[in-house]
Amino acid sequence: MNLLDRRHRLLWALSALLILLGSLLVWWSWQAVRPAASEARQPSPDVDPRPVASATALVAVRPTAVVTATRPRTHAVRLAVPGVLPGDIRSGLQTWMQPGPGTAIITDTKPADLALAMEGSGEPLIERVYVPVARFAEVADAVPAASLLALWRSGPGEDEARLAVDEDTAAALALLWGPSDQVEVFPDVAAVGTALWQTPGRLGIVPFDQLVPELKALSINGNDPTDNQFQPDDYPLVLRLFLEVPAGLDSLARDLQDHIVGEGQHTNRDPGKLTTLVMTGVTAMSRTTALRMEQMGYDYPAAVISSTLAAADLTHISNEVPFTPDCQVDATENNLTLCSRPEYLQSMRDVGVDLVGLTGNHLNDFGPEATLWSLQFYQDEALPIYGGGADLEDSWKPLLVEHNGNRLVFLGANSFGPDYALAGPDYPGSTPYTLEAMTEAIASARQELDPDLVLVELQWEESYDTVPLLTQREDFPKLREAGADLVTGVQSHVPQAVGFEDGGLILYGLGNLFFDQMWSQWTREGLIPRHTIYDGRHLSTKLMTTILEDFAQPRWATEEERAAILERVFAASGWWE
Predict the structure, then answer these.
(1) Phi and psi (nearest 5°) for 379?
(2) How far apart are CA 331 and CA 288, in angstroms?
(3) Whole-angstrom distance, CA of residue 396 vs CA of residue 392
(4) Of 29, 98, 280, 300, which residue is the least packed, with the fewest Cβ within 10 Å?
(5) Which one is predicted more confidently, 76 or 176?
């Protein structure tokens, strides 16, 4: 055999060997891919196979805008989870995980690329806050954590109903407390709310961001997620999922973190999207209230309640009377010509006043010059006003307040008069009300200012009854239909009924804040609603209750006094017998 023949045979042998090695490589690759593809087609029995449920609140929730796009990945991802996840969390993860062979959410961490765990160090990748709730018409504001846990694990006791939860909350509580067959699971928060209103005293738990005003959020051990003072580290109803990252997969982990944060899925309670607003009833620091301030100090009215009101992000005062340097104390019992000295602003400052409604019927008691001086005083003190002004056009100007991305528009008007209290074309005063004019103002504010919420404040005919006047019950709901999200009556010297119209809250009267009416128990009582707004939506309202002491100083109602006030208010609302 010559040298050339040897070379030809050697080349043929090498070619055959390369073909054999290529065939082996293809067979090995197919065997490696086939189990993963099979697993993607056949979910593990430990993984919830149900489709993602959409949670629908009692009122419409604005959709979250997509702000980032998922970056393409070059290989399949297997993500281990601690159990069945709430639908909103599961859907967010599935959006990030591109479908294909080998991609799966599993419960076995051994073959996983990344894993979510209930415990970990640092910041969690995902956090969800859940809130115990009852129907709004319940007196209790709190529930012990032990009571909720007992309902979850053991079911209701005598004269109790089963705990009501939506599907997402049920999945979260199963991770936190273990599985339960003692609760009633509803498809969404709307169904939970319906069930709670059908059974007085029944409790439920829902996601924080899906709260609606018709449900009362209950605190646990004094910790309330609807309050801006909320402490999540001391709260039992928080689901936290931490990301476990094997060596070499830091880039993949960062990709997932960027997706979760960019899509707004990190938490359902971002403090940077939350606003708390407290609104108050009649303030008229005159007569005997003024006398006590001269005797006890200009901060005397606010001394007891100031810390709570000042802690709110926004504090509202409805001040019925003008500030004027010429004001003299007149504590005569039937004096109806009212004013305040500029020094009395101290009490308003102490409660953290951020905005002032001027719809009161005593605004012009000392004439137009005093009113104009008072308007300038507010401006000099950098206090925004609405519901009154230097003339008719000025009085109708809406007040836009923006806090943590929440755009709130305030409008106010006076339907009662007297005529001399109302603003005219060239005359200061409170805004004169008509249903047509307020309806037009709401529409104009919506179009021109693009608010998340419109809040309307009304000075109506005065009443000393908890049941609203017929004219109130006719017009207040119509303003809700016209586009107002919250309608509040600030004229009443006693707490009045509460109502809901198409998911919007109506407060017919709040009673007195700083005013000297000590002559009856009802006029000593007051309501201070604290509204919680989150991501442009009104989530919840808590009714705080006060009792006036010494003609000037409100204090917080005792538990028994509070129950009596709320029971009477809820009875007037048609919710209690």
Answers:
(1) -65, -45
(2) 5
(3) 7
(4) 29
(5) 176
CA angle 114, 120, 125 (to 5 degrees): 60
H/E element holding 195? Answer: helix 189-198
Name the pLDDT band for 100 (thresholds 50, 70, 90). Answer: confident
Q: How far is CA 536 from CA 130, 234, 312, 456, in A?
A: 19, 27, 17, 17
Q: 363 and 321 in contact (C-beta within 8 Å)?
A: yes
pTM of the model: 0.87
Q: How confident is the model at residue 75 (pLDDT cuts 50, 70, 90)?
A: low
Peptide bond into 418 cis (omega under 30): yes
Least confident of 94-108, 139-153, 439-453, 501-515: 94-108
Q: Where are the alpha helices (DSSP H) in 336-424?
A: 345-350, 367-380, 392-395
Compute the distance between CA of residue 195 and CA of residue 165 in angstroms, rounded to an integer. Answer: 10
Cα–Cα dist 50/374, whole Å: 63
Query: How far are the Cα atoms of 48, 211, 241, 450, 502 from residue 188, in angstroms, in the given order?
Result: 17, 11, 23, 29, 18
| Interacting residues of 371 by C-beta distance below 8 A, sequence separation 6+ | 322, 363, 364, 428, 429
Confidence at residue 62, expressed as pLDDT on a 0 to 100 scale: 28
In this prediction, residue 99 carries a pLDDT of 72
Structure confidence by residue, pLDDT tens digits, 215-235: 999 999 999 999 999 999 999
Q: What are the CA-CA distances from residue 213 to residues 28, 170, 485, 557 (Å)?
A: 60, 22, 11, 23
Q: Could you tell me how many residues make up the chain?
A: 577
Collapsing DSSP states into helix, strand and coil, what is residue 120? coil
Whether 39 shows a pLDDT value over 50: the answer reads: no
